């Protein structure tokens, strides 16, 4: 009796022997796709934080009277594209860049951050 039960159990286990491998082969691409998506979102978030800092720094520099060329030179290549607009008494700096993943640009994802400040020369001047 005991031997018959053991043999039946062994036969059932043999029928399911490759199922774990098949389940792993089906689930692995989904896990990899989710991991790549998470890394891409983190890369986009880091780019956005960098753009925020670049726009803020650009606005600070423009508020004290630096020209657009001087601001771009001071900030270097870290910013992507900078646009500086002066609408007296305010200055607005917009930093734009493409999202990157492992050094490659992600298609269709453009990140933009804007910072606005009050021109230093306009402080104390009646409107």
UniProtKB/TrEMBL annotation:
Question: Which keywords has UniProt assigned to this entry?
Answer: Membrane, Transmembrane, Transmembrane helix
Q: Which residues form a coiled coil?
A: none
User: Ranges for the TadE-like domain?
Assistant: 18-60
Which domain of life does the UniProt lineage start with? Bacteria
InterPro entries with a match to the protein in the record: Rv3655c/TadE (IPR049790), TadE-like_dom (IPR012495)
What sections of the protein cross the membrane? Answer: 21-46
NCBIfam families reported in the protein's UniProt record: TadE_Rv3655c
Give the protein name, as stated in the record: TadE family type IV pilus minor pilin
Q: What is the lineage of its organism?
A: Bacteria, Bacillati, Actinomycetota, Actinomycetes, Micrococcales
């Amino acid at each position: 009796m005991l031997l018959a039960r053991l043999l039946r159990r062994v036969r059932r286990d043999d029928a399911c022997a490759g199922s774990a491998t098949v389940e792993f082969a089906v689930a692995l691409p989904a896990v990899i796709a989710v991991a790549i998506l998470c890394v891409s979102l983190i890369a986009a978030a880091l780019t956005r934080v960098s753009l925020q800092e670049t726009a803020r720094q650009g606005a600070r520099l423009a508020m004290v009277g630096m020209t657009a060329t001087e601001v771009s030179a001071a900030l270097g290549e870290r910013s992507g594209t900078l646009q500086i607009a002066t609408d007296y008494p305010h200055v607005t700096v917009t930093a734009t860049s493409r999202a990157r993943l492992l050094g490659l640009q992600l298609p269709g994802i453009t990140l933009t951050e804007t910072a606005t400040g009050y021109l230093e020369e306009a402080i104390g001047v009646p409107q």
